[in-house]
Amino acid sequence: MSLIVMKFGGTSVANINKIRNVASIVENEINGNKLVIVLSAMAGETNKMQQYIDEISSDSKLENDLILTSGESVTIALLSAILKKKKIRSIPLLGWQVPIITDENYQKAKILNIDKERINDFFKQHDVLIIAGFQGINSLGFVTSLGRGGSDTTAVAIASAIEADRCDIYTDVDGVYNADPNLVPKAKKIPKLAFEEMLEMSSLGAKVLHTRSVELAMKNNLTLQVLSSITKNKGTFIIDEKKLIEKEMVSGVSYSNNESKITISGIPDKPGISAQIFGLLADNNINVDMIVQNISQDGVNANITFTVPNLEINSAKEILKNNLSKIKYNSLKTDENVSKISVIGMGMMSQSGVAQKMFRTLANNSINILAISTSEIKISVLIDQKFTNIAVKSLHEAYNLTEN
Ligand code: ADP
Ligand code: ASP
Ligand code: MG
To answer: Which of 120, 143, 172 marks a domain boundary?
Structure first.
């Protein structure tokens, strides 16, 4: 007997026919195994819930999370009802019934605990547990959501807690590609990828896996497979770096339009000023990513440019404006029409020239670089959003990543 966790995303459960298709995939896996199926809401449902929240301008976090997570109740119940007609012993479970215990951060709650014994108890009477993704319960007894795309994290957290033999993430593409296949038709599927590379790809925009799910899988050394719920192709395995025989110099190109740029000009060029600005933002839980500081022409004042998530741009602006008297800057400008383009690869650690090729390729396409950030295995640049397509496609070609 194997313990298998299978997660199906919104496009895989978008309508009744697709849920029937999931039911047959599940049926084929039973064979005496015990299965945990994690589902998202039907594609588009969570967006619809977000629109309702926006329509009433609700800032009640507790209510908002209850609204946002509602779509998953429908899909788990539908799948379970279909499986029961096939005489399969299944049961639908919401986050609080498992329970999936989270911290108190509504909208981006972190899973704190999942009790293996409780899951085993459910398995005494059932062969298939169908669990709502993206939701949990906090210590106050209220429903929390894990952040958009969070069902992947539910699946990985459960697989880790029960020490599953397999954790398969079914989606609308048949694996992880070396660029978003919907943007770059010539993108190639990657058969195996290290956790570290996948982590960079997800956090730099490849939404095929929720970043936190990759973090958790890496921490627990849990191999993941990303595969299609439509085709029967083998998917991409996300594995421990030590098991990777060949390390690509560049294994993928990602982009993200989820960040905005802030430029503060004319700040006094003295020790402690960056600590003050970024301290204020950190105190307010605002994540700063890329940072560029330069001295202005007068040699007295400096300018600082940095990026923050789009969702946090308004709070960041407000904090900086409220602290004008402390920071003493001349002007504050924001730009939401920027895009972050990244190249990622484990082999970058040992080879030079990757950055040079990136900058040269962008220059050849007359694309200006607004900010740069690097780590051992990635280089990111900030550019004008209108050049996203051309930047991703030309870099994809420059590093010979295209399918022949
Ligand atoms: P699900 O609803 O199954 O969770 P998502 O929409 O969250 O699916 O993730 C799948 C999508 O991720 C794909 O349709 C694809 O457009 C996008 N994507 C972005 N980058 C990549 C990549 N490098 N490889 C595969 N898919 C990617
Ligand atoms: N339904 C949620 C969302 O759309 C969670 C998920 O799909 O992973 O964000
Ligand atoms: Mg997803």
So the answer is: 172
